[in-house]
Amino acid sequence: MNTLQGWDDTIVALATPPGVGAIGVIRMSGAAALSIADRLFTAKKLSEQVSHTLHVGVLTQQGRSLDEVVVAIYKNPRSYTGEDVVEFSCHGSPFVLQEIVAACLAEGARLARPGEFTQRAFLKGKLDLTQAEAVADLIASGTRAAQRTALQGLKGGFSAELMLLREQLLQFSALLELELDFSQEDVEFADRTKLTALLEQLERSTFSLLRSFQLGNAIRNGVSVAIIGKPNAGKSTLLNSLLNESRALVSDIPGTTRDTIEEAINIENILFRLIDTAGLRDQTTDRIEAAGMERSLEKMRSADLVLYVFDSAEPVDEVIAWKKQAEAASLNFLLVANKSDLVPAASSQAFLSALGNVISIAAKTRQDLDQLTQAMVTHVLKGQFDTEHTIVTNVRHFQALQEVHKALLDARRGLKESLPGDLLALEVRRCLQYLGEITGEITNEDQLDFIFSKFCIGK
Amino acid sequence: MNTLQGWDDTIVALATPPGVGAIGVIRMSGAAALSIADRLFTAKKLSEQVSHTLHVGVLTQQGRSLDEVVVAIYKNPRSYTGEDVVEFSCHGSPFVLQEIVAACLAEGARLARPGEFTQRAFLKGKLDLTQAEAVADLIASGTRAAQRTALQGLKGGFSAELMLLREQLLQFSALLELELDFSQEDVEFADRTKLTALLEQLERSTFSLLRSFQLGNAIRNGVSVAIIGKPNAGKSTLLNSLLNESRALVSDIPGTTRDTIEEAINIENILFRLIDTAGLRDQTTDRIEAAGMERSLEKMRSADLVLYVFDSAEPVDEVIAWKKQAEAASLNFLLVANKSDLVPAASSQAFLSALGNVISIAAKTRQDLDQLTQAMVTHVLKGQFDTEHTIVTNVRHFQALQEVHKALLDARRGLKESLPGDLLALEVRRCLQYLGEITGEITNEDQLDFIFSKFCIGK
């Protein structure tokens, strides 16, 4: 399966985050893990202990005590990697942890590459590729929905769905191949109507998975929301109100907030990254200003969703002008009429009908804020998905599924145009190839290395 | 022993550093730890498993999967705290970890206070107080020497030495008490000469421990070294040369560098924190400049050691003037004649003899740099200690030992002045009290809470 160097090495790495903590865990995997541990641990012979047991004692190197630790033993094949695994639970001093890793290296282990523990688990057949990728997703998960989809992936939920697709395709393929064997007799074993129905069903499943990617992407990476509008429209008030409104503020999770992101909130388990922009200047000024507006639009285009906030008392023409520009630029946007509490209901009604679909709120008093958040969620879900279905979160899976879908369409067209069976079979094999690449049944090493290189070290 | 609230609660905390890692460990301790774990872990009944075993499965809360984890079980009293302890080894997502802690809280655990696991270990008699403090020291250790002294403390090395002192004092005390029982008969059971010899011996041991504190402090916190001198004396060159010279640069350990510290180096396992100062102006200028010099001296006084760096070609008078000022200010300093390679050896010799003890180096070419580092180490060790003896690293221990020493001196004076036995006994009881406080045999709760509050959460 692979010709890469170093798969027989015993590897070691710090598995817990860097920094000072109560404890730090060092993980070692490979044929020599137990014998290396035996040379460092003097209390008893670890290699003679039963798998899945814990042992307390001191690690020493050349007579020098390194730390008092708890050693966890997992014996091949009953371990994460499928190899012998030893974990040292140490006192959480970066210095002490570094010394213990160094001692393992001195005794013959080498430092693990990022994701190498999981890559070994994959190579030993403990996980398929989508499950291995779910491990990385779970570690990176920052919301309940991300956690759920990753856990579903880890349990093989996504793989199971793909397997089903694959089986149906194999069935189809078998019929075609049979037909090819008897091609000179010019019989059709494979009922063309049945085949067409099967292809249509496969195409629907694939398309449904493909469509789930937008949501999957939102679940995995969050939805960027640019809040824009003229000065004093109430953008910052809205931001603050949304943050207070949202009961699950996730911005306290380290790593959630990036440079360009102002605040992150969790609405119905979808992570929204709110970007508060500087107020837009009035559009009625000169051309230089218009160029500035163009630059702002440019910035907005990179957001998944734009909230255009305006004062309900503002002349409606300006809003209509902005809307036209946004539509021309194919922006995803919601029009948010703020300060609705300061405008008479009747005039507000006229206002709304002139604009079409507008969400009317009063950010300061939080009036109808839930209508806005609901619209934001609906925008992401597009009313078509719920988080209980299998969701594609991985770009690699998405791209492979796109190829599957394309091949399926080609096959269906072929069927329609009475393409010879051997050409049809070619299309079906293409589908099977792409599906196999997702789960790792068909792989190439570069791709594997790329996938695992994105893991953190120690996993 | 204590009346504090909550010692019967089951406590939970993240034990690994915050942030994203391959794995994170959540620790739970208390009577309900196993039953709480049983409600979250569905694969098997954890409370029925043998102590010191590992179990793989999914944590679920109200039917919702939280994570696939490894559970480590330690049964009372064979655990760190002496209570039932459960450790969840989880995927290292801060979000997932937070969810699992929340699930434990929902099932009846409460968040652990900083150091509460170790405090419980102390209260259950698993560790004495100096051992518990050594746990915190080990976690904070940043050099091999700090690791060694903390591990020695953890193994009870320091306690053993104090126990010896205590036993000898108890012996002395017993003789005195005996004498008091027969006081009306005016006999002396306790041989005054023998008593004096015993007290002298105790005083010597205590004094030796007290003296070790300077080294202990250096080992634990590092030695601050201010590099000062006129502009162009070569201060920054010296700093760079020292940093390159030192093979164990420890400034890459997170948390080592603080705001005011420029660079940290490890010389012979002692951590030196080098502070490069702005060049001092020439002393020959006016009074306002002299006030500035005074301020610089003020800054230098806070350093453990000052390296005064000057150009070997510089007029010797200025160096002498600085030296006088430094001596008047009781600074710990070393005179460092830089650029020795640019000065003829003969003139250099004359120079040195005029100043007394000067270390001659050429920072740029690293000539004789080892003589300087040796002098720095000697300054810390004062030639009196080696790191193989018991070293006092803890301010609390140091202060208690100071009280012991004072009481011993008082007792000896009392003996000399033929103080009545009951007053002598009082002094001895004072000594015993202070020794008992160090190991935790005699404690008060405020003190305990203060000690453990400095621990990190999860330990």
Descriptive notes:
2 copies of one chain form a homodimer. Chain A has 459 residues and is of the alpha/beta class. The first copy, chain A, has 2 domains: 11-127, Gyrase A, domain 2 (2-Layer Sandwich), CATH 3.30.1360; 129-439, Rossmann fold, CATH 3.40.50. Helices cover 48% and strands 17% of the residues of chain A. Chain A contains 15 helices and 13 strands. Chain A has helices at 33-40, 94-106, 116-123, 129-140, 144-154, 157-181, 192-221, 235-245, 287-301, 316-328, 345-355, 369-381, 395-416, 421-439, 445-453, and strands spanning 11-14, 23-29, 53-61, 64-74, 85-91, 110-111, 223-229, 248-249, 263-267, 270-276, 305-311, 333-338, 358-360. A 7-stranded mixed β-sheet of chain A has the order 8-9-10-7-11-12-13, sandwiched between helices. Chain A has a 6-stranded mixed β-sheet with strand order 3-4-5-2-1-6. In chain A, strand 12, helix 11 (345-355) and strand 13 form a beta-alpha-beta unit. In chain A, helix 4 (129-140) runs antiparallel to helix 5 (144-154) and helix 6 runs antiparallel to helix 7. Chain A is flat and about 85 Å long. Residues 247-261 and 383-387 of chain A have low confidence and may be disordered.
